[in-house]
Specification:
Elements: H1 23-29, E1 39-42, E2 45-46, E3 63-66
Antiparallel strand pairs: 1-2, 1-3
């Protein structure tokens, strides 16, 4: 689990980031291994893996990250 304990029931956390902070910066700051970020969305729009290192976050945006999902 990569959310702080106080955020685990809501499955979300509010973060303040500096201008120019990229999606990958946020993921790394939260301690989430990049390999566990199968689906990444900003405000519901998919962010491709190669774009995560350059796509900057803006005020008010929502970043959503999902791990790989498998079933059978």
């Amino acid at each position: 689990v990569h959310l702080p304990p106080e955020a685990r029931s809501s499955h979300q956390v509010d973060l303040e980031v500096e201008p120019g902070t990229t999606v990958l910066d946020v993921i790394r700051r939260q301690g989430v291994p990049e390999a566990l970020c199968a689906i990444v969305l900003i405000d519901g729009a998919w962010v491709a893996r190669p774009d995560r290192a350059t796509r900057a976050m803006s005020e008010g945006q929502v970043l959503a990250v999902w791990p790989p999902i498998a079933g059978g």
